[in-house]
Amino acid sequence: MTAVEDRSTEAPEREIGKARRRKEDARLITGRTTWTDNMVLPGMLHLSVVRSPVAHAKIASIDVSAAQQSPGVVAVYTGRDLAEEQGSIPCAWPVTPDMVNPGHPSVAVEEVNHVGEAVAVIVARSKVAAADAIELVDVDYDLLPPVLDMEEAVAEGAQLTHDHLESNTSYHFVFDAGEAGTGADTDQAFADADVVVSRRFVNQRLIPAFMEPRSVVVQPQGDNFTMWSATQIPHVLRVMLAMVTGVPEHKLRIIAPDVGGGFGGKLQVNPEEVIALLVARRLGKPVKWTETRSESLMTAHHGRDQIQYVDIASDREGNVKALRVRLLADMGAYLRLITPGVPALGAFMFPAIYKFPAYRFECDGVFTNKVPTDAYRGAGRPEATFAIERAMDELAVELGMDALELRRKNWIRAEEFPFTTVAGLEYDSGDYETATQQALELIGYDELREEQRRRRESNDPVQLGIGFSTFTEMCGLAPSRVLGSLSYGAGGWESASIRMLPTGKVEVVTGSTPHGQGHETAWSQLVADSLGVPFEDVEVLHGDTSVAPKGMDTYGSRSLVVGGTAVVKAADKVIAKARKVAAHLLEASEDDLEFENGRFSVRGTPGTGMGIQEIALAVFAAHNYPEDVEPSIDAEATFDPVNFSFPHGTHICAMEVDTETGMVKIRKYASVDDVGTIVNPLIVEGQMHGGLAQGIAQALYEEAVYDADGNLTTGTFVDYLVPSAADLPHFDTGNTVHPAPGNPIGAKGVGEAGCIASTPAVVNAALDAVRHLGVRDIRMPLTPERVWRALYEGGDGGDRATAGTNAYGGASTETTAGVSTDASSLGGDR
Amino acid sequence: MTRINVRVDGVTYDDDVEPRTLLVHYLREQLGKVGTVVGCDTSNCGACTVHLDGAAVKSCTVLAVQADDGEVTTIEGLAQDGSLHPMQKAFHEMHGLQCGFCTPGMIMASVDLLRENPDPSETEVREGIEGNLCRCTGYQNIVRAVQQAAGEMRGGARAPSGDGHVSPAEVDTAAAPHVAGAQS
Ligand code: FES
Ligand code: FES
């Protein structure tokens, strides 16, 4: 075993880049987990929520007397009971100074504005008793007409979502490159252009559908409160709950234990979190609320939901000249944490990787009587990527050019980085050509094109199409100053600290709160390399505001880029502090010390030295340390990047379309992504797979459908089609690596890439298969029904989103009244 | 209340349950077997999958009283004598989980799948676990994990012992051959 003997002299293998199996797994594969719903406390009471069955109504009266008499029921509260203390669910992103925010009570007081809105809360001894009492609460509603269609909602004389407001428009947000000085005059550029293509795209409403339902437990201890919540954002939640409820921040501790996925869906201050805190405060007893899946799909925030009007201009040779985007973005009934900011975050990404000389973006945030939208994996950027990548294909068709050739002609070349775009962003690094070449090889492009030709010539009922998405995104949210300039209510820094324990073990405290990403593993790898300690000696602590007091949490592909960098910077400080102690103990000058593989040694004096783990013990004993320092080598760091990072990649989808049945099937999917330096290839690959699944699901399966009365008809997993293993293809994924210059790790962020990039590649592929048959658009998701209609009836497959569900081809659901209205008969497949 | 007698993860329980109590609620709330989780209310997600008398069931579709005189194995009882089941090991090795919420059900369903088909193709795995939803992984690494476990349980090249059980300590050193840059 010479390897063992040599160990002290040989450099240990670098951890960064290694496919470490995850530390997190041990508890997750054995069921030794700490989901919030697992929590049982002595005397704990259970909450259930009475929810509105109607989309829009005044609450005429609520009779809770029968519920109060129900066995085991301790209390029943209506919105009126809580009105004084519940405040409003906070909105941290007023995108314009005159943005209209109607206010969002956790429990409705005067009126309900979407199906599923809370109208009363039952507190009972058991979960069953709380659930049983729901139907005993008698609510009288004076119905109002629901506002459901965005285009109608912004028309003259439209019904109002909130009758105390003047219109259904929350805000009008504009970015104009000409006015901002980052581009030419857009109107002029359109007037001068040879070719203009205009399209209306629908980016449908989706549901994040994290697998662990939301759950919250609150334990009061005197005037202190501990809240466990299935949240992505314990730190943000603490600040917000303190502001909303008046419970002082220092009396509030939030713990996110094991959290079962979020995808932006748990980036929220939930009404039920506020309710649980208020009830625990009133009763002085621990309380728990855990949602059912139906409640989750109906009331947890949704995502996407934009109507996009895109104009793109070019010359005859295919040089793009201008881009104009107008959005209607559905806010739903209320503004939650970053509801209005989602489309604004996308505003800067529509020009994507292309060198548009002119760009104008306008967005109306529109209220409707639906559950609010907010962050969902990508948040604004998938919508932007979809629009531009679809529009580039449309332009290519108009010009009679190859879709890839058009992209290549206009994209930023590798030697042009860093590149400031027409939207004013400085793209950091990358090479679109190389990623594209690799993706073409990975998918076997030439063969597929050949097969496509054969199928076309033989009039095969199954046609083949190939679709591209050459995308970039802005990640690593985010530079605090930039967020400030966009009117976001907080910064985007991240905090970390490192505690060197006496035995040499290392505790890393991170403000990034994971919910499946693998921070414990990746951060251990970072610290193992920085400090030269074994991977196994590092423990990562997170998700508890008492343990990790400062943080901005996990979203926007920011954890490694911002939170990981904070960890690396904290490690640098540990080394700097340890260097002083080492110099003292080794009786050498600091300048003569080298730090390598976890040891300080005196330059030119082999055999001398001291390990950083030994120094940890020395400062613990503190018998002998320099005069001018504290006896500690622990350190803390806060990192605030100066720029975003810009992962990019080329995604290619090969799609079979059965022209007789409308069935689509992904034949092959290949992607080559540049996410900067890869710390753990296993985790990076996993993030890509998961993102691809969700992006493909938007293209093919998922849609939150409301009927003509405002009922969510996709309120269970029977109807909301989260894909199973059998619904998804094998993914061929690869990477190029251009380290991000903006952080010492070189990471760009990977959590959202697959989800942002894949959707347009899939739709472009389907269209490429059937364009020669006269189809020029198909509305997402590409159900067989829609594809068939697009083929045989023209149009984009039909406006079927108002009634019926995908699961039954739209045929089985009437409006709640059982009467077919004009709007409901529009939809469905009858 | 109805009296039931049921063996769960090797322990016998004699309990009164409400007739309407679902097996999953009995497991979680009365026995504290919180390793098994609830992900939906329409029997679609499979997060609650356990073995009842040796076969996988969604424990949200079974009444506790139906498990009377039965033998239940949950994710908590799958590892034996401190050594992981090959399926648990393979999920770890192949990165077949992220948040891990679907994992207990996914592992229990996959073990049952191999009982019926010890050597499934990729398509057979995908169809075999169709009743279990995962929102995180995109399934590809789950498929790999199931196939890896299948190989090991059939006595494949690297099977360390007859039944494929390995100690948790062995797990970290196994390679994930599909990942570029994978090292032991
Ligand atoms: S909880 Fe049993 S199938 Fe979803
Ligand atoms: S690992 Fe999160 S749902 Fe499967």
Overview of this structure, please?
The complex is a heterodimer of chains A (830) and B (184). By secondary structure, chain A is α+β, with helices and mostly antiparallel strands. Helix content of chain A is 29%, strand content 22%. Chain A folds into four domains: 36-144 and 214-290, Aldehyde Oxidoreductase, domain 3; 146-203 and 302-427, Aldehyde Oxidoreductase, domain 4 (2-Layer Sandwich); 428-485 and 640-798, Aldehyde Oxidoreductase, domain 4; 493-547 and 558-637, Aldehyde oxidase/xanthine dehydrogenase, molybdopterin binding domain (Aldehyde Oxidoreductase, domain 4). The longest helix of chain A has 28 residues, at 559-586. Residues 1-9 and 801-830 of chain A have low confidence and may be disordered. At the A-B interface, helix 2, helix 21 and strand 28 of A face helix 2, helix 3, helix 4 and helix 5 of B. The complex binds FE2/S2 (inorganic) cluster (2 copies).
Sheet of most strands of chain B: 5 strands, mixed
Number of domains of chain A: 4
CATH class of the largest domain in chain B: Alpha Beta
Distance between the termini of chain B: 54 Å
The pLDDT mean of chain B sits at: 89
Q: By helix and strand content of chain A, what is the structural category?
A: alpha+beta
Which range does the strand content of chain B fall in? 5-15%
| Major β-sheet strand ordering of chain B | 2-1-5-3-4
Strand content of chain A: 15-25%
- Shape, principal axes of CA atoms of chain A: globular
Profile the largest sheet of chain A.
7 strands, mixed
Oligomer category: heterodimer
